[in-house]
Amino acid sequence: MPTADGLTPGLLLAMPQLDDPNFHRSVVLLCRHGEDGALGFIVNRPLEIPAGELLELESDESTDLPLTVWEGGPVSQERGWLLCRDEPTEGETLNVCDGIFMSSSQAHLNSVLGGDPRHCEPDRSRLLLGYAGWGPGQLDTELAASAWLAVPVDMELIFHTPSEDLWERAIRTLGVDPSAISPGPGIH
């Protein structure tokens, strides 16, 4: 499965033997993977925090914003990233793949919040706090130790599967029963 760009874009599924509580049963959207390390975002951990409580808005917007807040990973949780399906027109953007973009631009966030409320719904945009990061060779070592299962990006899974079902459904796309997975070396 590795490509010229490593495993990106792809989804990493935490294997049952991965005992790091930051990643238990997590699904990570892997955006970058190469010799300098890897960058990804957990996509199956919504938080019960309204976006309006976290954001310092320039206007008198209501704190009852429809934008959902998700845990993106254990690194820099004070920093927000916008996972969106529409390409941002403002600020720097990471094009993960067709139809999936990441932005940390305040201008783009303001544009989403001030535009069509439909763009704030979880199947269009999510505010992710933090990210998952690996140093050079670290993710490769974890893959070799069978800590992760790599699968292709699936927009239906990411945006239309209930978060509590995402991990299991992603594993089942490979035709595997999650309860049948046993620890073993190698990249899966």
Task: Give a summary of the structure in a few sentences.
The protein has 188 residues and is of the alpha+beta class. Helices cover 19% and strands 30% of the residues.
Strand percentage lies at: 25-35%
Mean pLDDT: 83
Number of helices: 5
Overall number of domains: 1
CA-based gyration radius? 17 Å
Biggest sheet architecture: 9 strands, mixed
CATH architecture: 3-Layer(aba) Sandwich
Structural class: alpha+beta
Tell me the CATH superfamily. Answer: VC0467-like
CATH class: Alpha Beta
Give the beta-strand count.
9
Unreliable runs: none
Fill in the CATH topology: VC0467-like
Terminal CA distance reads 9 Å
User: Level of helix content?
Assistant: 10-25%
What general form does the structure show? Answer: globular
Order of helices and strands: EEEHEEEEHEHEHH
Describe the protein's architecture and organization:
It is globular and about 45 Å long. The relative contact order is 0.22. The longest helix is centred in the C-terminal third of the chain and has 10 residues, at about 165-170. Strands 1, 2, 3, 4, 5, 6, 7, 8 and 9 form a nine-stranded mixed β-sheet that branches. It has a single domain (about 10-180), classed as VC0467-like (3-Layer(aba) Sandwich), CATH 3.40.1740.10. It is about 20% helix and about 30% strand. The protein has five helices and nine strands. A hairpin with a 2-residue loop joins β6 and β7 (about 100-105). The chain has about 190 residues and is an alpha+beta fold.
